[in-house]
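Contributing new records

If you add data, match the layout below exactly. Sequence lines come first and carry their own label; structure lines follow with theirs. Keep one chain per record. Anything else will be rejected by the validation script.
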Amino acid sequence: GTGYVKHRYSAAEITPQHATIEVVNPNKGVAWGAAYWQYFEDLNRIQSFQDTPLKLQRAFYIVRRNERGEQLVAARVTRPTQSSEDPADVDVAVVGDRIRVRTEVRVDRPMDYVHLKDMHPAGLEPTNVMSGYRYQDAVGYYQSTRDTATHFFFSSLKPGTFVLEYDLMANQKGIFSSGISTIPVSYTHLTLPTKRIV
């Protein structure tokens, strides 16, 4: 018959032989199908794959205001070495801080219909929840903010480097995972790294 077939394996059952899939069609007609692998990993262990035509670099900054205006301080993205949470540590966000997310997209060829999904770090809430068309850094896109991620939809991207920024507000105390950013183009899915923000 036809239909969807799914096999699950525990981590202990996976062997190098599972990397080879053989499909046999016992019929005389043409058969169509697809196979995919899916597994789950701790977000903090996901590694970046850089050998792609699309590259992402994401950074977090704490927005500090002073008499000269806004100052961006790179947020600490690793667990502090000392146990104290001294407010004098300028690179540690506290509840109420505005966090600027800066995502750099590098494209080496023209591309159409690109979707960037940028997951929010836990403990942070978006400040701008209104969806709409935006224009930033010489690129136009539709931005849609949801509970767990901000989505950027590009009808086309020219070769170059584009910087996208949006703000989040720290509303919980602790050390949280920021999740991952993915940027699929048509039928290709690329997954980028995770960082933790304090």
